[in-house]
């Protein structure tokens, strides 16, 4: 299984802090946002490589960072060739670009690199193996306002996803979808042809929505929380709350 990290955005909401530096490599204590995530994922036996998709503006920073890491699984940095927020490919097209460039034909753990997580991805991988199907994560979100800004699913008693909507005005459930997914090898042909068949390009949730409509997808309920770093305020909050020496 490949761990594919989508990290080609420009984090415009963080202003000067990420004008010339990638958000995933911002420091939280003695590590980085991305480093904390990889510390967990690297320990999963099924993972054999970390693939990080970035842009041309930040690729050299990621390459220098990668040289200093000592994970048990190799790190591959992919440059998507874009240099501005206006020319970005979008998360789905970045995934397809990396799959094509590296000839990836394995199970995929797809993650966004702007969250602090308080659970292990191993439980998510084990769930996908038990279901023998592609999977997404979900968590209960009581706020209707927040549900209107994310993906929302309906699932049955076996955790099979029956419906997914992006940013629904009238959510059909309180199950929100964070940007973490597993796509099994058997479904990769659907992934490869998703955009040409109408899948949205920008957010990774667009692909999950597309896949729910075309194959069996299952939802793993997060068993602990996450902290989404989407603004300067939330970054500084994360530094204050969790930036302690490990």
Write the layout of secondary structure elements.
Layout: E1 2-6, E2 27-28, E3 31-32, H1 33-41, E4 49-54, H2 59-67, E5 75-79, H3 91-101, E6 108-112, E7 115-117, H4 121-131, E8 134-140, H5 144-147, E9 151-155, E10 161-166, E11 175-177, E12 180-183, H6 188-192, H7 204-212, E13 217-221, E14 226-228, H8 232-242
Parallel strand pairs: 1-4, 1-6, 4-5, 8-13
Antiparallel strand pairs: 2-3, 6-12, 7-14, 8-11, 8-12, 9-10, 9-11
What does this molecule look like?
- The model has no long low-confidence stretch (mean pLDDT 95).
- The chain is globular and about 45 Å long.
- The strands form three sheets. Strands 1, 4, 5, 6, 8, 9, 10, 11, 12 and 13 form a ten-stranded mixed β-sheet that branches.
- A hairpin with a 5-residue loop joins strand 9 and strand 10.
- It has helices at residues 33-41, 59-67, 91-101, 121-131, 144-147, 188-192, 204-212, 232-242, and strands at residues 2-6, 27-28, 31-32, 49-54, 75-79, 108-112, 115-117, 134-140, 151-155, 161-166, 175-177, 180-183, 217-221, 226-228.
- The protein is α/β, with parallel strands linked by helices.
Strand content: 15-25%
H/E topology pattern: EEEHEHEHEEHEHEEEEHHEEH
Uncertain spans: none
Q: Provide the structure class.
A: alpha/beta
According to DSSP, the number of beta strands is 14
Cα Rg: 17 Å
Mean pLDDT, rounded to whole units?
A: 95
Q: Describe the main β-sheet briefly.
A: 10 strands, mixed
Query: What separation lies between the terminal Cα atoms?
Result: 28 Å
Number of helices: 8
Shape: globular
Helix fraction by DSSP (H/I, runs of at least 4)? 25-40%
């Amino acid at each position: 299984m490949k761990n594919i990290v989508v990290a080609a955005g420009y984090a415009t909401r963080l202003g000067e802090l990420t004008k010339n530096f990638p958000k995933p490599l911002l420091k939280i204590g003695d590590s980085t946002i991305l480093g904390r995530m990889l510390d967990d994922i690297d320990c999963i036996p099924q993972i054999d490589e970390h693939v990080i998709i970035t842009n041309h503006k930040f690729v050299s920073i990621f390459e220098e960072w990668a040289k200093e890491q000592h994970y048990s699984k190799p790190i591959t940095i992919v440059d998507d060739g874009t240099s501005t927020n206006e020319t970005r490919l979008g998360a789905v097209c970045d995934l397809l670009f990396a799959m094509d460039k590296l000839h990836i034909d394995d199970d995929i753990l797809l993650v966004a690199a702007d969250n602090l997580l308080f659970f292990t991805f191993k439980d998510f991988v084990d769930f996908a193996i038990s279901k023998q199907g592609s999977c997404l994560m979900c968590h209960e979100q009581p706020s209707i306002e927040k549900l209107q800004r994310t993906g929302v699913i309906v699932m049955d008693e076996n955790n099979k996803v029956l419906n997914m909507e992006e940013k629904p005005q009238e959510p059909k459930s309180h199950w929100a979808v964070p940007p973490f997914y597993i796509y099994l090898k058997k479904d990769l042909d659907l992934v490869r042809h998703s955009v040409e068949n109408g899948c949205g390009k920008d957010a990774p949730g667009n692909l999950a929505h597309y896949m729910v409509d075309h194959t069996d997808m299952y939802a793993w309920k997060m068993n602990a929380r996450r902290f989404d770093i989407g603004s300067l305020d939330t970054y500084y909050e994360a530094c204050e709350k969790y930036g302690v020496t490990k």
